[in-house]
Design brief:
alpha+beta, two-stranded antiparallel ribbon, 2 helices, 12% strand, elongated
Length: 52
Amino acid sequence: MNVHERFSNRLRRCRHCGIRVPRGKMIYNHRACSEDCADHLWLKDTYGPDFY
């Protein structure tokens, strides 16, 4: 088993809700776990953190 096979499906933390999901299932540049979280991150990126 090489390093790529061992670490290819690493879990990454969602930048919005914090749950850990496989990197292959993440969206929005591997930052969000779902469409809802991606929408929240897009709003924060577009309008700034003071939007909420």
